[in-house]
# Entry
Amino acid sequence: MQAKKHFDNTNPEMSDSKQFASAMIILSAKARIYWRFVIMHEVIWTQKLPTAATDGVYIYVNPDFFTNLPSDSQRAFLLGHEVGHMILRHPQRGKAFRKREFFRIVKGQRIPFDHKLFNRSADLVINDDLLAHGLEKIECGLYSEKYGRDHLVDDVYMELWQEQQEQQDQQQDQQQSNDSSDSSDSSDDADDADDADGTDGTDGSDGSDGSDDADGSDDSQQDDSSTPDESAGTDHDGHDTHLEPIYDGTAEEVAQAEAEDTRTLDRTLKDGIEDQEQAVEDGECRDIGHGAGLDERVKASQSRMSAPITWRDEIPDLLQKAGKGGSVSWSRIHSRRFNLYGVVSPVTKGSLNQAAIIIDISYSVDRNALNEYLHVVADMIDELQPTDGFLILLTADSVEHCYEVYSGAELLDLEIPYGGGTNMSAGLDYIEEQGYSPDLVMVFTDYEVTHDDGKRLVDEGCVIVMDGQPSEYARWVMGRTDPRVITVDDSSLAA
# Structure
């Protein structure tokens, strides 16, 4: 693995211990995917952590905490919990959210990223999945009857964040009400005191009030101290500590190291899936399916590892090459081609600032093809992390809606309406009028456009992403405008 280790392995003999062997046997029997991750990734035994942790690359365990758990099944649960974070890429995603300083944009509002709340959301999903596999829960972990393995962590985060905001609003309203009441009472008391002894009441404040204020100050400082640190990890309400992967070197060296670690994790997941399926077939393991979060990661991994070279590869290549100032570089290999064929080839180095997608929302557009296309783009948004995000223009005769998205989840959360005419040039007008300057403009359409509309798209360098094989009319327009076309065809959808 390419990431730096946060801690040294001070008790390597623990990997040969009876407790570890017993926990691994249980994982192998009940949760084969998790077992595969533990045997393929280094377990580092350290006293520097109170319980356990992962940075998404290594597994860190306190040997005393591990051996003092009351059962081998709980020890298996602990190992599986850290692996769950690795499979779902929580450390890497948390790092990306922290660096960009927000979680998601909803209706123009930037939802802040709360590291502790994200960890809590992740733990609720992972722990329920481990319980579904039949492992014994650790009492100090986080569990919920409302959220479980069939939830996506991002969705849980949004619900918990909303609940947190509502609670804060209620507390603020209550505090304002109390302050108002206290002010009224104080005024009445002061009037009474003036009537009784002629004093103005200013000496009524004593040392106990000052002590209360000091306590409030301490609480505030304690909250501030929980701000996540990139290398030290963050304590939270569950039984483990959350770390982020760290790398040394130039920006290109770090990008290459991260890509290599991602490939290793994908290969491990692929092997784990095959192990799980074989174990179910042989009757060695129950078939309980994947939770929603793991299922999404499984689909993404399978796509990367086994998809044929089709439009699913053309889109990533196109986006990789769209970065401003990009140039071919052998210092960073083409990760998808390497995953598919083991062929080392160069990619374009540079940074993607912004891409725009004009989406044809007319009734004639194939929504299944659009959904597949958006999932591929969503993966690339998370991988490339464009500086100014992706501009999404839902367009008929005019631009009906415009969104700026900064993550794959934000893109897939968009509600895309149906209906209207077809004038994709309206999207280009909007881009120009609003002062956007995307590195790349893609137009998802069935190309049932006028000749003038199609010609302008071509003249301004747009890439046409077709929703399937073109109609006779679309072929006529294409023959007279000669666009660059990427086709989301039936064969690749079936694959």
User: Anything to note?
Assistant: The longest strand covers residues 324-333.
